[in-house]
Amino acid sequence: MANIAVVDMAGKNVGEITLSDAVFGIKPNAVVMHMAVVNYLANQRQGTQSTLTRTEVSGGGKKPWRQKGTGHARQGSTRAPQWRHGGIVHAPKPRDYSYSLNKKVRRLALKSALSDKVINNSLIVLDELKLDSYKTKTVADCLKAIGAQKKTLIVLADNNAFTVKSIANIAGAKAAQINTINTYDIINADTLVIVKDAVAKLEEVYA
User: Fold this and answer.
1) φ and ψ of 29, to 5 deg
2) Distance between CA atoms of 32 and 84, rounded to whole angstroms?
């Protein structure tokens, strides 16, 4: 089991926590993590692209010239694909790109991502992060003190509106709860900051 120092909002060590090997100490599975990231990005696609086929463009109701005797190739409409302003062949239409992964695969991917952060010393356990009002500067100073100034994912134990919105005001910082955390956000972050209470909940859910 890995022992990680617990720091306060000023960046000072205030204790130590032992992380569960079942969640934070497995061998990262790169293939499964890749599957989870591709799945997440596919599920984010809106799939709203749409172009017009020959039945949807305006005009073209009349045959441009008679079938025979003109020397031209026969044409039935000026909105056929080969004409300017004509319809698009095999036009893209709205579709659903989302699909689901097996639950065991999703859990393995998440635990692999968490374990990878521990291996690379990119995991910081914060004693607590609680605000009684919107204080972006307080959160920004905290991240600076603990050395998490690039892309940072902060995992909270509860959905505190003051904390969540204060984090949202900081470029590169993102808040997540136990029920919203995902593999993509963990991998995408340079530093993973987990509040101490959230560690226990993560281990309870995923161990």
Assistant:
1) -105, 100
2) 47
For 123, the token pair is 């995991």
For residue 129 the two structure tokens come to 């992060």
pLDDT in tens, 146-189: 998 789 999 998 888 899 999 999 999 999 999 899 999 999 99
Does the model's pTM come out above 0.85?
A: no
Q: Tokens 């799945």, residue? A: 39
Token digits for 68?
């025979």
Buried b (16+ CB within 10 A) or exposed e, 50-81: eeebbeebeebeeeeeeeeeeeeeeeebbbee
Instruction: Write the CB contacts of 82 (distance below 8 Å, at least 6 apart in sequence).
Output: none
